[in-house]
Design goal:
Shape of chain A: globular
Strand order of the largest sheet of chain B: 1-2
Largest sheet of chain A: none
CATH topology of one domain in chain B: Arc Repressor Mutant, subunit A
Oligomer: heterodimer
Shape of chain B: elongated
CATH architecture of one domain in chain B: Orthogonal Bundle
Strand content of chain A: under 5%
Structural class of chain A: mainly alpha
Radius of gyration of chain B: 21 Å
Radius of gyration of chain A: 25 Å
Distance between the termini of chain A: 29 Å
Number of helices of chain A: 14
CATH superfamily of one domain in chain B: Winged helix-like DNA-binding domain superfamily/Winged helix DNA-binding domain
Number of strands of chain B: 2
Strand content of chain B: 5-15%
Number of helices of chain B: 4
Number of strands of chain A: 0
CATH class of one domain in chain B: Mainly Alpha
Chain lengths: 349, 140
């Protein structure tokens, strides 16, 4: 076994203080109980001469602290829900991307009264092509690569509107971008080892949406149901609702097997699903001006949806924590009917 | 005690590290790295999360504490339940290894590959041209 670093080298050093600061993600009582041990082990293992914790160390401590908090609330299902929510988010993005590319971006730009960007109506086509590429990556490459690709897709979703604003080129509207960013954030938690179902879904989803779009165009017989982003809010609201309903169904199915991860995933996707309907909701509440809600109206609606989503998550966590405490107290209070033994609280948990 | 599901590799290696003697955090990190040939580098945040989970499951327990040069060392040891789980998992893995070894040994020497070249019995599929699959019902 390698020898640990000699204690005096790092004791009381700036490095130790920086590791201690990273413990803030842990619950207070856990920090008091285990903080010295965790920081001591880090100081034993780091390379001599190091002055700052590495980014991997920071992610490790912040992630472990969050996990410890959720464990204290009896809500580890929330972490288990992240890969499922990410898979649902990515496939919704793939579906929306295929739809918007075929039904909007490739449409004649005169319908939208825009100067075309190459063969597309707006620069938004780059975002949708990017998410289709992320879907392909999730199908063909390891999970870590898919997560990196999702980070790239998210970056593209944020950067393209800025580039469009700076260059004066047309870009996609906010009511499409806001849910795309929310879903992109969720997609960052794609699973490390996806099963064949998760790998099959992106091409299947893109294929189904493409087939439906082609069939719809043929059925229109020259009509133009979708000609610009302005004609898509209803369809986007339906996409958000469908995603929510499907994840809820999966969640209820898993709940029957005493697995609450699917229900946590549903809760995580409330906000992105709600943002898909923000435009419609804004119009219903505040009316329309010139074919759509004003940007401030949309911002207020989207902000309200974000607050409601966060409040629902906080309420679910508080409820779970209260339930967990009650069950724990009951277990600790109950003496064994045979020997009278009372279980003691586990230290460090 | 039987394991309901196979142990994940980090969990298996943590239990293996504790099988011989009680260890503190740094000792476990070093031993797991050595056992995995340097492939698995546990970080302390992850390690203590895993130790908490294993403690909750009754597989690991605290042994003793000592302070060395001002640094707290808390030692952990396997419980009887942890030893049973590790034994069961080791037996499961041993059976898998034996089955795979027998199959590899039973493969006739000089099997011809799809490109017509002759290869020895220990060619690893995926690292070179894949060997021709033996028809179902052949010798095990």
């Amino acid at each position: 076994m390698n020898q640990p670093n000699p204690a005096p080298e790092h004791t009381g050093s700036p490095l130790e203080s920086r590791y201690r600061r990273l413990l803030w993600a842990y619950p207070g009582d856990y920090q008091a109980e285990r903080g010295d041990e965790i920081v001591g082990t880090y100081l034993d293992t780091v390379d001599p001469g190091r002055r700052w914790p590495s980014p991997h160390d920071a992610v490790d401590l912040l992630g472990a602290g969050l996990r410890e908090r959720l464990r204290g609330y009896g809500a580890l299902g929330l972490l288990a829900a992240l890969p499922l929510a990410a898979t649902a988010a990515l496939n919704t993005l793939v579906a929306v991307s295929a739809f918007l590319l075929l039904q909007v971006e490739f449409e004649d730009p005169r319908f939208a009264r825009l100067d075309p960007v190459g063969p597309f109506q707006t620069l938004g086509a780059l975002i949708w092509l990017g998410w289709l590429l992320v879907g392909l990556t999730a199908t063909a490459l390891p999970g870590a690569w898919a997560r990196t690709a999702a980070a790239g897709g998210l970056l593209l979703t944020v950067a393209v509107p800025l580039v469009a604003a700076v260059t004066g080129q047309p870009g996609p509207p906010l009511f499409v971008l806001a849910p795309a960013v929310a879903l992109g954030l969720a997609a960052l938690a794609l699973p490390s080892h996806p099963g064949w179902v998760a790998r099959s879904l992106p091409p299947l989803t893109a294929g189904c949406v493409t087939a439906a779009s082609v069939a719809f165009s043929a059925a229109e017989n020259g009509g133009n149901m979708f000609t610009s982003y302005g004609s898509t809010p209803e369809m986007l609201a339906m996409a958000g609702g469908l995603m929510f309903a499907l994840v809820l169904l999966v969640g209820l199915g898993r709940a029957l097997r005493a697995d609450d991860a699917g229900l946590w995933a549903t809760l995580l996707l409330v906000t992105p699903a709600g943002l898909f309907g923000a435009d419609q909701l804004g119009q219903a509440i505040w009316g329309t001006s010139g074919g759509g809600p004003a940007p401030t109206t949309f911002a207020v609606t989207a902000g309200s949806i974000l607050l409601v989503g966060a409040a629902l998550l906080a309420a679910a966590l508080a409820g779970q924590a209260a339930r967990h405490q009650t069950v724990r107290r009951r277990v600790l209070d109950d003496a064994c009917p045979t020997c009278g033994h009372r279980p003691t609280a586990m230290t460090g948990t | 005690m039987a394991t309901p599901t196979p142990l994940r590799e980090p969990t298996f290696l943590i239990l293996t590290a504790l099988a011989r003697e009680s260890m503190h955090g740094y000792g476990i990190v070093s031993d797991v790295a050595a056992l995995s040939g340097g492939r698995l580098a546990l970080r302390p945040g992850t390690l203590y999360g895993a130790l908490d989970r294993l403690t909750d499951e009754g597989l690991v327990e605290r042994d003793r504490e000592e302070v060395v040069e001002g640094r707290l060392r808390r030692y952990y040891r396997l419980t009887e339940a942890g030893r049973s789980v590790l034994t069961a998992e080791t037996e499961r893995l041993r059976r898998n290894v034996e089955a795979a070894t027998q199959r590899l040994r039973a493969r006739p020497a000089g099997t011809r590959t799809a490109d017509g070249t002759s290869r020895g019995p220990l060619t690893i599929p995926g690292t070179a041209a894949r060997p021709i699959l033996r028809p179902t019902g052949g010798p095990a």
